[in-house]
Amino acid sequence: MTTAGPGRPRLTKQRRPGPTAQAEILDAAAELFTTRGFASTSTRQIAEVVGVRQASLYHHFSTKDHILAALLEKTVSAPLELANRLAGRDESAAVRLYALILFDSGQLMSGRWNLGALCLLPELRTERFARFRRERQLLCVQYEALSAAVLDQLGAGDAAGRAGLPFRIVETVINERSDAETVWDTETEGSAPGGVDSPALLADAGLRVLGWTDVESLRAPSEQLLSAAAT
Amino acid sequence: MTTAGPGRPRLTKQRRPGPTAQAEILDAAAELFTTRGFASTSTRQIAEVVGVRQASLYHHFSTKDHILAALLEKTVSAPLELANRLAGRDESAAVRLYALILFDSGQLMSGRWNLGALCLLPELRTERFARFRRERQLLCVQYEALSAAVLDQLGAGDAAGRAGLPFRIVETVINERSDAETVWDTETEGSAPGGVDSPALLADAGLRVLGWTDVESLRAPSEQLLSAAAT
């Protein structure tokens, strides 16, 4: 361990998944933040779990806040990039919105840790997280623009703020995962709430709340769009 | 302050709203937990904010976990009581579900603090919070039963888990409030996401995700039902 400073090969076996030391630190921090809590986790504990010295950790992230910011930015960067690409496509707004929900809820469901659960931390209200808040806000704007276009097409208008709903529906993945990860005493507590675990179910819901009824017709074209937009 | 032990009138002026010392403690704790974080708040800080001695606080709540449990139980007890009363009513499942969403999202929106934001804390996964989890689960079961009945009436079935969606849609109030309470740098960050701030909008959404299109027809009867069920 004494030679595990920045840049040097460490002597312990790799304990966390990831191609770089930085990725290993992020994975360990994500587990500790989501299972023990952000405030209750120290950088010393993160370094211990990764199997590196604290000095080595500080080489990559100067504070615990920087680690949290990097983790949170990961939850919005890919969907935001897709949303920006979708904005230039010719498919209907309904197909593009359906595709964005499929992708975004899929990545929130499949990430190794339920990072979205960290979004409600009061600690995020500081300057340190301004970049994350800005990117999340840009993503939200894309959701609302697509939703407003769908409402327009349906002649529904948006006096009542309905265009904000699809973004919120994607975020329900976070609560669903949090409940699924809680160990329930099934004898006294019954099974965990919910069971909403498919991106298509949420994409259907995101379009239905706007008043779009024929959601089945959007599935195939939105999956084609995702394949096309990925390349 | 030296005479402010359990049962004795305290010498400082009341600082927090509430008819009892217990209510004042809960209000102060709710503010600190939701604005600074649960792990970052000590019982000493709560006692200071209320203006009582720590010994007096322990007279009402033996640990910080007991305070959190009491706060969380408040978020589910009223909607659960309403759901139980609605279960015995003759109105259609759609009207009853609409009424439950109106009431539940209304109370989540109007509480002085955004207590729902505490639901994702990893600390809740312990035995101490079993009662809260059980009551929340019972509430979820009522939502799912009403939703399944609406799907039945529409001949839609529930192979894809759609019946779990209305409960999740009500929970979106929590994220909405959390974003609204964040101080946004509007110059670089734009305005806060969303604007979903009406119980009727969420009740509409809860029915629409099940495939119910004529949501307008449910508003008047569900408001009548709420008045009737309240007495």
From TrEMBL, chains A, B:
It comes from the Bacteria. It comes from Rhodococcus spelaei. InterPro entries: Homeodomain-like_sf (IPR009057), HTH-type_TetR-like_transc_reg (IPR050109), HTH_TetR (IPR001647). Signal peptide: none annotated. The lineage of its organism: Bacteria, Bacillati, Actinomycetota, Actinomycetes, Mycobacteriales. PROSITE patterns: HTH_TETR_2. Keywords: DNA-binding, Transcription, Transcription regulation. The keyword Transcription applies. Residues 19-79 form the HTH tetR-type domain. The keyword Transcription regulation applies. This is TetR/AcrR family transcriptional regulator. GO terms for molecular function: DNA-binding transcription factor activity; transcription cis-regulatory region binding. Residues 42-61 bind DNA.
